[in-house]
């Protein structure tokens, strides 16, 4: 039987084929020669690509500037203490162009301006000058008057201790004359300009005393009717202290006569402020402070101007006011000797919209009106301005509102009055020399005169040459080089469907001015945009106080060349302390207000000035948003946005808490004409609330780093009133919460000079309605969805604690939730130095920013209570 295996189709033997295939596989799998050249090229290409990627990463990665915040942040202790507060100028001009100052060790020095040399007042010994003290040399430079240990009791003015040093003998004389161990406080003191050495006058317990010669133990009493809270001679009473810092007694040029004001408060009502003593004190519930406090419905203090002949002590004359105001209530706002035979006095009506400038001549001492100042627009006048007199005694310069041609607005300008002709002209100049590239205001002059002035915190001099009249800005030469600096802050892009053309126009029209590049040190080319000046008696030199934007410094310059004589203060220690600190970045803006249907009418400004304090770690190109705190002004007719160097709570909030702080010049602010300033007259809060809401909206829509939700308001006094009023009239809920420190609530209970300045007299037509509409308790029904924090000191005199209590009572009656904090035995100035207050505000703001909505028990209950 035949059997076999077949591997092919024909069943034949395939061994030779397998051997052939195996041999082929062996040959095919043998090693081949490598392509080294191709492999090298591939590796080079790979490394080239990696190098390009690495180079791109390096180029596109921003340079590491180190820590985002360079320097240490400001703490609360930094801004509340004295370490970062600049030293103030505490000197005075003497005769022969000499300046009395102190050096870094509080030793008295005399600077001779013509030679620029500095020498000690005493070579053999030194007189200690404690911090906060004041010093004055007699007319012959023999005696030094030193006042120390200033103290203020609640309801009273300042008191201090005084001593006179005889620089020739070293003898020390206490004032008043007493034993060396007895320190008797006095209220006021001044040297006589008389050539008789050592004559002075002082006030003690509301009476005036005269010392004809300090070396003789003899004192002559000028008045004897002074009493506490009754009659005050030579020392302003509470009302006049609240109005201004003017003195109340003046020597004539020769020193032979003394004029003074007698204040009669017997018809003025009293208010009582409680003092909360220690718990174990017997006077815990009995001690009170009594203040003569005039209100819009009560009489104001009666004042009389008197003159005493110091050569004949019994000759005291009372000057009669102008007949036109004899039977009216008025304030005596300025007194100045023209010469030994004439006094100039300004009498302002109680309504504060009309002032009479009068000359009171020796003999009959009857005051005759030589010029009348009116507000021009419905509103008030600035009282207490100084005056300059011509040597002839008949012509003088003063400030008054003047209407500008082709406008309906008034601006405060310089007026020259000729008392003989009973005519006045504007003291103007035709050409501006060396003008800064900022707004000069409406200061286009028409009549030449020579004048040294401070305008918009710039030191200027008006001069007259043979061929032209000029106004030269003495502190603007460096300013021009810095005003070209602009901010590079990024703005938020408009979202489709939510921004109208007006909003887009607002964003594109915001003008961002310079920021301070070197806020923490002085150098030779420092720009000075906030100045003050003190002219020497010879008019050939002046002290220039540069107050910002850099750390303040003081220098002496000559006129008219403006050459630097001596740099006397640069705050060197403050510079050193500031170098390692993280300052907030400040930027000043002009925000357009293009809003219709507002109550602005004719007073609508084109732009609102805004200053932003930006955290030092803020970067505009990031998506991080920061909370916004809007700080309202404390008083109307002031300026919030300035170039003054400040170390305040806003610095701490921006640097230490990463909160953007905004200051805004609202309606009622100074410096942009009386039409805008007086626009708040009889309607406080109405226009400012619109300013705050609309400006804050524009800031939120413009800058991507400002949170559109975390926004709060804070203010004190009138600013506290604005905070509450704005919260209550903010239907769009731009602000979620507000902080009011010592706020105004009821204008009827406010001091008469303050309330009537902005609301007029209560007895005038519609006066009751204006006071009612300005009352905060009439608009609190809208506060149930807002967070409110009230803070008040129980010893606050001008804005007493009753105002906060009236607000609290009204909110409690409506069953609204709010926070309130009282500070026993503290006034506003004491509160400003209290760290606990700022910590409480900080805690409240954290809660405000974390949640905008206040919890409600029942919306229907709130609705019923609001109705």
Question: What gross morphology would you assign?
Answer: globular
User: What Rg, in angstroms, do the CA atoms define?
Assistant: 37 Å
Which class best fits the helix and strand makeup? Answer: alpha+beta
The average pLDDT score comes to 83
Strand content: 25-35%
- The amount of helix comes to 10-25%
Distance from first to last alpha carbon: 125 Å
CATH class of the domain at 625-866: Alpha Beta
CATH architecture of the domain at 625-866: 3-Layer(aba) Sandwich
Got a strand count?
44
Biggest sheet: strand arrangement: 32-37-38-40-39-41-42-43-44
Low-confidence segments: 1-11, 428-450, 463-468, 478-488, 492-508, 853-867
Domain Peptidase S9 prolyl oligopeptidase catalytic: 645-848
Domain Dipeptidylpeptidase IV N-terminal: 138-400
GO molecular function, one term: aminopeptidase activity
Keywords: Aminopeptidase, Glycoprotein, Hydrolase, Membrane, Protease, Serine protease, Signal-anchor, Transmembrane, Transmembrane helix
Tell me what you see in this structure:
The protein has 867 residues and is α+β, with helices and mostly antiparallel strands. It has a domain at 625-866: 3-Layer(aba) Sandwich (Rossmann fold), CATH 3.40.50. It is 19% helix and 30% strand. The chain is built from 17 helices and 44 strands. The strands form 10 sheets. It has a 9-stranded mixed β-sheet with strand order 32-37-38-40-39-41-42-43-44, sandwiched between helices. A hairpin with a 2-residue loop joins strand 10 (200-204) and strand 11 (207-211). Helix 10 packs across helix 11 (718-728). The model is unreliable at 1-11, 428-450, 463-468, 478-488, 492-508 and 853-867 (pLDDT under 50). It is a single-pass membrane protein; Single-pass type II membrane protein. Keywords: Aminopeptidase, Glycoprotein, Hydrolase, Membrane, Protease, Serine protease, Signal-anchor, Transmembrane, Transmembrane helix.
């Amino acid at each position: 039987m035949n059997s076999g295996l077949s591997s092919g189709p024909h069943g034949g033997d395939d061994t030779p084929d397998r051997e052939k295939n195996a041999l082929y596989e062996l040959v095919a799998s043998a090693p081949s020669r490598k392509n080294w050249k191709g492999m090298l090229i591939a590796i080079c290409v790979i490394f080239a690509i990696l190098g390009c990627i690495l180079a791109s990463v390096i180029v596109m990665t921003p340079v590491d500037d180190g820590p985002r915040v360079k320097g240490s942040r400001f703490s609360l202790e930094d801004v509340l203490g004295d370490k970062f507060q600049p030293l103030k100028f505490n000197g005075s001009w003497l005769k022969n162009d000499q300046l009395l100052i102190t050096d870094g060790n509080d030793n008295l020095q005399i600077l001779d301006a013509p030679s620029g040399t500095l020498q000690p007042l005493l070579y053999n010994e030194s007189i200690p000058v404690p911090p906060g003290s004041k010093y004055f040399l007699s007319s012959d430079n023999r005696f030094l008057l030193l006042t120390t240990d200033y103290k203020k009791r609640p309801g009273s003015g300042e008191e201090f201790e005084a001593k006179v040093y005889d620089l020739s003998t070293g003898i020390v004389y206490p004032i008043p004359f007493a034993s060396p161990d007895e320190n008797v406080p006095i209220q006021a003191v001044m040297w006589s300009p008389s050539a008789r050495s050592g004559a002075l006058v002082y006030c003690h317990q509301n009476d005036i005393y005269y010392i004809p010669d300090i070396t003789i133990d003899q004192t002559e009493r000028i008045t004897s009717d002074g009493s506490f809270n009754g009659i005050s001679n030579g020392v302003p009473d509470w009302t006049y202290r609240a109005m201004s810092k003017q003195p109340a007694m003046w020597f004539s040029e020769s020193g032979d006569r003394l004029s003074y004001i007698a204040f009669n408060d017997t018809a003025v009502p009293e208010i009582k402020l409680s003092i909360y003593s220690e718990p174990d004190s017997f006077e815990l519930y009995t001690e009170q402070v009594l203040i003569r406090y005039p209100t819009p419905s009560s009489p104001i203090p009666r004042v009389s101007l008197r003159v005493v002949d110091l050569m004949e002590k019994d000759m005291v004359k009372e000057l009669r006011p102008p007949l036109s105001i004899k039977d009216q209530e008025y304030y005596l706002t300025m007194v100045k000797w023209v010469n030994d035979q004439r006094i100039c006095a300004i009498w302002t009506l109680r309504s504060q919209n009309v002032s009479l400038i009068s000359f009171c001549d020796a003999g009959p001492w009857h005051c005759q009106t030589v010029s009348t100042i009116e507000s021009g627009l419905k509103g008030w006048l600035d009282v207490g301005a100084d005056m300059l007199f011509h040597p002839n005694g008949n012509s003088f310069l003063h400030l008054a509102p003047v209407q500008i041609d082709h406008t309906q607005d008034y601006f405060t300008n310089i007026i020259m009055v000729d008392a003989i002709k009973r005519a006045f002209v504007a003291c103007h100049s035709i050409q501006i020399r060396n003008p800064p590239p900022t707004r000069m205001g409406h200061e286009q002059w028409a009549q030449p005169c020579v004048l040294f002035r401070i305008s918009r915190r710039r030191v200027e001099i008006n001069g007259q040459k043979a061929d032209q009249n000029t106004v030269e800005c003495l502190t603007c030469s460096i300013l021009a080089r810095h005003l070209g600096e602009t901010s590079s802050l990024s703005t938020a892009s408009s979202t489709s469907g939510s921004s109208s053309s007006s909003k887009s126009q607002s964003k594109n029209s915001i003008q961002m001015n310079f920021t301070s590049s070197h806020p923490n040190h002085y150098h030779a080319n420092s720009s000075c945009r906030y100045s003050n000046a003190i002219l020497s008696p010879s008019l050939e030199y002046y002290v220039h106080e540069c107050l910002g934007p850099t750390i303040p410094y003081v220098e002496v310059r000559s006129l008219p060349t403006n050459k630097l004589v001596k740099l006397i203060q640069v705050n060197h220690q403050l510079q050193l302390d500031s170098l390692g600190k993280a300052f907030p970045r400040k930027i000043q803006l002009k925000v357009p207000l293009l809003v219709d249907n507002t109550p602005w009418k004719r007073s609508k400004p084109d732009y609102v000035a805004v200053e932003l304090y930006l955290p030092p770690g803020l970067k505009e190109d990031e998506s991080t948003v920061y909370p916004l705190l809007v700080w309202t002004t404390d008083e109307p007719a002031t300026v919030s946005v300035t170039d003054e160097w400040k170390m305040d709570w806003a610095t701490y909030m921006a640097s230490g808490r990463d909160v953007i702080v905004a200051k805004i010049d609202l309606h009622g602010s100074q410096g942009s004409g009386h039409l805008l300033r007086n626009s708040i007259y009889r309607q406080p809060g109405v226009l400012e609330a619109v300013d705050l809401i609309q400006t804050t909206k524009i800031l939120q829509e413009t800058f991507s780093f400002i949170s559109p939700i975390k926004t709060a308001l804070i203010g004190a006094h009138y600013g506290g009133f604005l905070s509450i009023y704005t919260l209550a009239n903010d239907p769009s809920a731009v602000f979620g919460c507000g902080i009011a420190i010592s706020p105004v609530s009821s204008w009827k209970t406010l001091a008469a000079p303050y309330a009537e300045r902005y609301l007029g007299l209560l007895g005038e037509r519609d006066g009751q309605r204006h006071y009612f509409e300005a009352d905060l308790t009439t608009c609190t029904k809208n506060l149930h969805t807002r967070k409110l924090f009230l803070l008040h000191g129980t010893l606050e005199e001008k804005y007493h604690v009753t105002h906060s209590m009236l607000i609290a009572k009204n909110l409690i009656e409506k069953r609204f939730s709010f926070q309130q904090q009282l500070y026993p035995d503290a006034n506003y100035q004491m509160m400003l130095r209290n760290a606990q207050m700022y910590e409480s505000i900080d805690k409240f703001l954290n809660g405000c920013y974390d949640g905008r909505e206040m919890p409600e028990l029942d919306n229907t209950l709130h609705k019923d209570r609001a109705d």
